[in-house]
Design a protein that fits this description.
alpha/beta; single chain; 33 helices; TIM Barrel; hydrolase; 4 domains; 14-stranded mixed beta sheet; Beta-hexosaminidase; acyltransferase activity, transferring groups other than amino-acyl groups; Rossmann fold; 33 strands; 984 residues; Aminopeptidase
Length: 984
């Protein structure tokens, strides 16, 4: 109580002082303030130091570690530049030796190392304890492939849930599900001590039917891959783990020469790659959330580049990845133990080339002798002068920074393990079931065979024909096979070959699909026959069973690359077609349990279903779909989905007025889903709430509309409109990612513009609004959004660019050298005013109203009324002419409700510098920079840790970037005349 009283007294005293001062402008000095000098001293090198975004606790740890004297020891630094694995489920003397004596800083775990979640947590704890006792300044980076679908390293059916593959998630049409699934997966493996996920896969399947990457990739549409990839990144990061995009520059369209000693080749030109394969990587990097990048081992052969191994080429890593795409995270090489590389170059040369090319972590999966040879090779590279100490230091800094964001000794030595997994289990099971059910895709059912109860009598026999396939690396069947074969067997490792195409395979007859047959039998009271088929084709046993059954289900797994499956399926379909002509009932259902492209375009297969993987969970969902427990809603990802949608007729949706009481919860869920699915930040949309769209301003008339499900109250779309003066504004329009391309947006758009055009005094229609500042216009890096608006009548040729910028760490920022002197020479002065009830306030509003949009004037009015938290900085010439203005506001100000970038998250103290208004002149760039400097200084005085500068017009953002700001998001504001929609 005493403390609260003291705080209240201090606050009242400060408020009294502000009230006394608010009626007169406060002169702002150009001299460096004491606060700026303090920050300059405390930050060491000042503005030359690149700010790193991390939590306060992590930042402190990183600073301490960054100056640890052990990093000056070259042996310690070299050890941090390798990521290594081993065979076996226990810590071996070899891996212990690497951690203790060679200071190995990163470990990759595979299915070979993991028996169960509990044993994994113990294994990781033991590894971290070894590192801690050996004096490592930071914990080990523990990396894991856990992509879901068919690529999982950890399998524990008691504690860790299975989820669909990346393409299976894309088949649901819900990018928000990609977020939830990846967050759940990362949380589960994080509970066992993992701190880095080797994912998501960002490859674009340019030649989807023939690429072995298959369902591990989202699909063949670059924008869709970006959308789902960024959602996955957000999920992994929100679970507290680091993420690693793969496989740069692309494994999505490769030419294979046959032998394992031959390197697969990318033959596309850089221009072709830039338009397709590189798009998801570029978009993911632009988010600033991608911690690592896995660089592949493929070759590149085109007129502008001839590279034998991508991860060993400075053209790929330093030039393309770092310089062209702007990636500054940790680059991880493909495994240098791969046969093609070691045979061609040798591991020692390969390590040196990888580091020289720009890789920070070099991967060696399991062979101890090879791993020691690699360490020796890097030392020799330094001794030979090929690798400089500066090059090592650069990589070391990146690795230290990555570790600081995803681990600490407290968490590394105490993974929560089973206790957390037990709590998560129910929610993860429900998410898994929903995800698999929603991913099941019926591409065709021409003969209406589904569900089986509609086309089959209960007494009729069902025949299940399944191919011989290799069990998934992390599965109960694989574990039972390994146990049966003893210690000599080993689980396939996703890094055994460069492209995960291990041709040495364990076949198990129909064992992989035995549970599928059992599930079908239980659902049909035992009337199921089941056998496998091989490259030997249709045998007498198959013919006999086909004659007995009235319905035949044929399972295929990558039939485009296992052509015997395609031939067998067509042979059976032909047999059944002939038997049907004789009056026998012979229905055929084909189920693709991996690539959906097996028979996607083959119309001779009348009923065709896709599951996208053949895990037991997927097979259970398949049985439920076949038996009619739910109606499958999945769709083919990428261009095939778009082509099918293009054939559908446009729908007209009922559009209703927004009702706060009824729709607020649905709007929050919609905004969250759109934010997660976006390939850009959309102006911090993830911070927006339903209140962000509402204004209590009598001069701005708001009217909002929704498309909703009246049964569930879920919102499929939302549009906000505003009318002020003679301008009608479409202030935002959002569509649920799962309902896009179904005309929801078109219906909302028509209703919103019809509403605005009805107002008689409207002379201009505007797309994007500064106040509220949720949707300033069309996001510049979402090209498909711009084309959508263009197709709906907007003239997008002459937009006004609006940019939001940010200083993420004010403690490291200082005024650029020479800027203050330049402002002084130009005789520009600044002052700070509060309140509307004075001539200074009226003068500011007159100035703003003359030079910008009416809603910006209302933003200034609101800021002047918020005297406790906001003020206006004015720039004036020597003759007192007003040159420019800007709004400043303290953390937690009321404007943040309507301007999401100002909203605090994770206890941030965000100050605002808003809506600079600077008319064009010879001095406009200098005036703008001066206003921003004054605004940032006031933010520092408000104890802000971060500053957001919102609504910088046109190319002026370039002058702000030069001051040390980073671009948060850029938009394009569009204006049209109402006549463009006369048909409405």
């Amino acid at each position: 109580m005493v403390t609260q009283s003291i705080i209240r007294t201090i606050a009242e005293s400060e408020q009294l002082s502000r009230d006394k001062a608010r009626r007169r402008p406060t002169p702002l000095s150009l001299e460096t303030s004491r606060l700026d000098r303090y920050y300059a001293r405390s930050s060491g090198s000042g503005s030359s130091q690149r700010p790193v975004t991390m939590s306060t606790s992590m930042s402190n740890e990183a600073q301490q570690i960054g100056f640890d004297p052990r990093w000056e020891d070259l042996d310690w630094a070299i050890g941090q530049m390798f990521i290594m694995g081993w065979d076996g489920t226990e810590v071996t003397p070899q891996i212990r030796h690497l951690i203790e004596d060679h200071h190995l800083g990163s470990i990759i775990l595979t299915a070979k190392n993991l028996k169960s979640a509990a044993e994994m947590a113990n294994l990781v704890r033991e590894l971290q304890t070894i590192a801690h006792n050996a004096g490592h300044p930071q914990p080990l980076l523990i990396a894991l492939d856990q992509e879901n679908g068919g690529v999982n390293s950890l399998f524990d059916d008691e504690y860790v849930c299975q989820f669909p593959s990346a393409m299976g998630i894309a088949a649901t049409g819900r990018a928000d599900l990609a977020y939830e699934v990846n967050k759940a997966t990362a949380t589960a493996v994080g509970a066992c001590g993992v701190n880095m996920m080797l994912g998501p896969v960002l490859d674009v399947l340019s030649n989807a039917r023939y690429q072995p990457l298959g369902v591990r990739a989202t699909g063949d549409d670059p924008q869709e891959v970006s959308q789902y990839g960024i959602a996955a990144i957000n999920g992994i990061r929100d679970a507290g783990l680091a993420c690693c995009g793969k496989h740069f520059p692309s494994y999505g369209n490769l030419d294979f020469l046959g032998s394992s000693l031959d390197i697969p080749i990318i033959t596309q030109t850089l221009e072709e790659l830039s338009l397709s394969a590189l798009v998801p990587f570029r978009n993911a990097i632009a988010t600033g959330k991608l911690d690592g990048m896995f660089v592949g081992g493929c070759a590149i052969s085109n007129p502008s580049m001839n590279v034998s191994h991508a991860c060993l080429s400075d053209q790929v890593v330093d030039d393309l990845l770092r310089n062209d795409l702007g990636f500054d995270g940790v680059a991880i090489s493909e495994c240098l133990e791969m046969q093609a590389l070691s045979h061609d170059i040798g591991v020692q040369n390969g390590v040196v080339m990888a580091v020289e090319a720009g890789c920070d972590l070099v991967l060696l999966c399991r062979a101890f002798e090879v791993q020691k040879e690699a360490i020796k090779g890097l030392k020799l590279g330094i001794e030979n002068g090929i690798i400089t100490k500066d090059r090592i230091r650069t990589s070391l800094n990146r690795i230290i920074r990555l570790k600081s964001t995803c681990t600490s000794w407290v968490t590394a030595l105490n993974p929560p393990g089973i206790s957390l997994l037990s709590k998560l289990r129910p929610s993860h099971l429900a998410l898994s079931k929903m995800a698999y059910d929603d991913s099941i895709t019926v591409i065709r059912d021409n003969d209406k065979l589904l569900p089986l109860s509609r086309s089959m009598h209960q007494d009729e026999e069902l025949l299940l024909l399944t191919p011989l396939v290799k069990p998934l690396p992390a599965s109960s069947l694989m574990k039972s096979l390994l146990q049966a074969k003893g210690a000599q067997a080993s689980a396939p490792n996703t890094h055994d070959t460069w492209v995960h195409r291990d041709r040495g395979t364990i076949m198990s007859g129909e064992g992989v699909f035995r549970e599928l047959g059992r599930c079908l039998a239980r659902a049909r009271n035992g009337k199921v026959l089941h056998t496998s088929y091989t490259a030997n084709g249709v045998r007498p046993v198959h013919e006999n069973l086909i004659h007995r059954a009235s319905c035949i289900i044929i399972v295929t797994a990558d039939a485009n690359r296992n052509l015997y499956q395609s031939g067998f399926t067509k042979h059976v379909e032909m047999m059944c077609s002939m038997l049907r002509t004789r009056g026998q009932k012979k229905s055929v259902i084909v189920v693709a349990v991996s690539s959906p492209y097996d028979f996607a375009m083959d119309k001779t297969i009348g009923t065709y279903i896709c599951t996208f993987d053949f895990t037991e969970t997927a097979m259970q969902s398949l049985v439920r779909a076949l038996c009619g427990d739910f109606v499958p809603k999945g769709s083919l990802p990428g261009t095939l989905r778009k082509s099918r949608r293009g054939m559908k007729s446009r729908k007209n949706w009922i559009v209703e007025d927004y009702d706060r009481d009824r729709d607020a919860c649905g709007l929050q869920e919609l905004v969250t889903a759109v934010a997660r699915a976006s390939t850009s930040d959309l102006g911090c949309l993830d911070k927006a709430t339903p209140l962000s769209f509402e204004l209590s301003n009598p001069n701005i008339e708001g009217a909002h509309f929704v498309v909703r499900n009246s049964s569930t109250n879920a919102l499929y779309g939302f549009a906000a409109t505003y009318a002020i003066d003679r301008t009608g504004i479409l202030g935002s329009i959002f569509v649920d990612p799962s309902k896009r391309n179904h005309s929801v947006g078109t219906s909302l758009h028509r209703r919103a513009l019809r509403h605005l055009r009805k107002k008689r005094n409207i002379k201009k229609l505007q797309l994007g609004i500064a106040f509220p500042g949720v949707f300033l216009g069309i996001p510049i890096d979402e090209g498909h959004t711009k084309s959508w608006f263009a197709n709906n009548g907007w003239d997008t040729q002459f937009p006004k660019r609006l940019t939001n910028l940010v200083i993420n760490d004010l403690s490291t920022w200082s005024v650029p050298e020479g800027l203050l002197q330049g402002i002084q020479r130009a005789s520009i002065s600044f002052d700070l005013i509060h309140g509307l009830d004075n001539t200074d306030g009226e003068r500011v509003l007159t100035f703003v109203d003359k030079h910008t949009n009416p809603e910006v004037t209302e933003l200034y009015k609101t800021a002047l009324q918020e005297v406790k938290a906001c003020g206006i900085v004015r720039a004036k010439s020597a003759d007192d002419t007003l040159l420019g203005t800007v709004i400043i506001c303290s953390p937690g100000n009321l404007l943040s409700t309507n301007i999401p970038p100002l909203m605090s998250r994770d206890h941030e103290d965000i100050g605002g510098v808003l809506a600079p208004v600077v008319p064009p002149s010879q001095q406009s760039a200098l005036v703008l920079q001066g206003l921003v400097v004054m605004g940032v200084r006031r933010n520092k005085a408000y104890k802000s840790t971060k500053t957001v500068l919102s609504w910088v017009q046109d190319s002026a953002y370039e002058h702000i970037v030069a001051m040390g700001f980073e671009i948060l998001q850029s938009f394009e504001e569009i204006t049209n005349t109402p006549d463009a929609w006369a048909d409405l």
